[in-house]
Amino acid sequence: MTHNSLTVGSHAIVIGGSMAGLLTARVLADTFEQVTIIERDRFPTQDPAPRKGIPQATQLHILLTRGRQIMEEFFPGLEAELIEAGAVVIDMGGDVEWLNPFGWAARFPFGFQAFSFSRCILDWLIYQRVSKLDNIGIIESSHVTGLQTNADQTAVTGVFVRQRGDDSQPLQPQELTADLVVDTSGYSSQAPKWLQAIGYDAPEETTISTSMGYASRLYEIPPNFSENWKGVYIQAAPPQRTEMGVLYPIENNRWIVGVCATAPHRPSKHEADFLEALKNLPSPHIYNAVKNAQPVTDISIYAPPGNRLRHYERLSRQPQGFIALGDSVCSFTPIYGQGMTVAALGAVLLQQRLQDTDLAQLPHRFQKELAQVNTTPWIAATSQDAKYPSVQGLTQPPSAIAKAIGWYMDRLIQLTTKEPQVTLTLFQVFHMLEPSSILFHPSIVWRVIQQLLVRSPQPKLMPVE
């Protein structure tokens, strides 16, 4: 099955079979005669399964609603396939107990649905769709070692690829030519070094980290479980409390349970420590649910590097024929659940620019506009991370405006304990369905003012139940 509608080139190469890479390949298949994905890892052959190339695959994943919508547009019927594979549909207002720094958010069913499933199912379903497109080829167990250029190095014309061989007989790099090379190889991208090797500057980088650690485990949902909720989210409250806990149902009648904390108290993979971390959360909801439940996996640990933004848009010179998107450009602390959706938004932007931009002009225009796409989620993640005592990478204290916005956001979250409409509006912004400007609508601002006029005492963190 081919989706070509407007051919702009004969061959495009996608470096990395990440979620960003698979979505990018789907977009390129509409406008290039042939698309090749180069992936270090190997994809599962028969059933969904974690793989080395996605080290965070065993941790809890949240696909924001905007990301799910985009994927459904790229792959019609994907949502139905997710449900058929066992994804649990959750009403975020009625099915989830959310403990934020000010108390329990008011629960009510308002039809804001989210899908809960393991990451490997989504990867599998999208890989299956992409691999069946007849103009997409996938080269596995291979990695790119550098960029090919034309004689005057003004354009990237392909890549050098090395396939995995044994140590005694290393394989020589192969040359693949292309009209466009897209780097979606993730946080560990070597593109800055490749650009320097062909005479260009590496992009500047901004890195902000809290040294957050994650531990996750799957449990069978007990047959006698009878609570009136499906999921629990116990939010961190930095700087006072940096631990958080999450329990969500996924396919096969299981819970995925996760705890997160910053250094020096990052979670342990030992069972006693894991249960103690759940027990020490400010609510016993999760601990009580799993203390007698049957675990079905070991405890999986993940220590991501944090937020990093590569400023390709600031480069004074860019070669033709090369762009980057996804985590190769902008990656986040995973607890905010933005990564896959931001990658999807980058793929949508590429789809739009391929329709109206000459390939020679594409890199400069695309990277400028991608930076704008990344700005809001970047600010959302890093402004929260700035509250953690362990944060590193901040070059200056928050501005007065940033402090004011932070104060206002706290007041909105406080309102979720009694104002369902505010909760719904926050969900719409968090899930990237509405711009953050909607949070300053007069009706929302008035609710904040009313709350202040009541002159209630400043909420304090305190044990719950």
From TrEMBL:
It holds the Pfam family FAD_binding_3. It comes from the Bacteria. This is FAD-binding domain-containing protein. GO terms for molecular function: FAD binding. Residues 144-354 form the FAD-binding domain. Coiled coil: none annotated.
